[in-house]
Amino acid sequence: MAKSNKINVKNTEILIYTEKANEFISLTDIARYRDAERSDYILQNWMRNRSTIEFMGLWEAFNNPDFNSIEFDGIKNLSGSNSFALTPKRWIEATNAKGIVSKTGRYGGTFAHKDIAFEFASWLSAEFKFYLIKEFQRLKEEEQKQIGWSAKRELAKLNYHIHTDAIKQNLIPKELTASQTSIIYANEADVLNMALFGITAKQWRDANPDLKGNIRDYAGINELICLSNMENINAVFINEGLSQNERLVKLNAIAIQQMKILTEVENRKLLK
Questions:
Q1: Residue pLDDT, tens place only, 77-103
Q2: In the chain, where are the structural domains located?
């Protein structure tokens, strides 16, 4: 399923969508930077160039096993002449191209794989291409950060199963009801919350009534790394028979030490 994003380049909003790990950038939006009223004309004018045809043909030959090279040769031979004209639709239909896509609807227009889109931006304006690449790279970096945060959030969830299993095996007598065991699980979760955040889940909810989710959903990456480590350590402490108070003191000391180290590592990366 395709996902879309928008970036702003030189006060021009550019739509980008990703499908099967490939990014497609709106050529229609890029053309609007030059002339908002005649974006289709600008795009067709670019596609008339022989160098453009050769580049798109090379991209298709390298990336598209279904590319119709015979039709491409015919188009290339005609390119550059005064009477030659080429639209995205004709290019797609004649050559079975995959690097350029026409979309209809609210967010419709002509899109191209980022390689082709950067080529079009270069023809339009070297300055615009420079800022387009910068904004595109910034978007990718933000997405990678989000992926990293999500992965660490999932790791914390997986480690929590280890934590709850230790609670089940060592702290929950068989005769307790389901509602009673949930209280024990919640209390043990708050041991970690208190050790790392200094407050319980209820205290956080009372202080943040307008926020959805829980305290861990708003944790930073370093906090999630530390939380993941603490869940494993607390499981070991439980198995060793340490009391809740003893574990809280030890876990708090570990949290302070680990957060200090993680913060120092992050600061060194920023200084570089």
A1: 888 777 888 888 999 999 999 999 988
A2: 3-124, 144-271
Q: Which two tokens stand for residue 104?
A: 């209809």
Per-residue pLDDT reduced to its tens digit, 194-203: 888 888 888 8
Q: Is 22 left (phi over 0), alpha (psi -120 to 50) or beta?
A: beta
- Give the strand order in the sheet containing 12-19: 3-9, 12-19, 22-26, 109-113, 100-103
Enclosing H/E stretch for 261? helix 244-271
| DSSP-derived 3-state class of residue 92 | helix
Contacts of 127 (CB under 8 A, 6+ apart): 10
Residue indicated by tokens 């800022």:
131
Indicate the pTM of the whole model: 0.51
Residues 6+ positions from 92 with CB-CB distance below 8 Å: 100, 101, 102
Q: Which amino acid is at 167?
A: I
Type of residue at 78:
L
Residue 264 CB neighbour total at 10 angstroms: 10
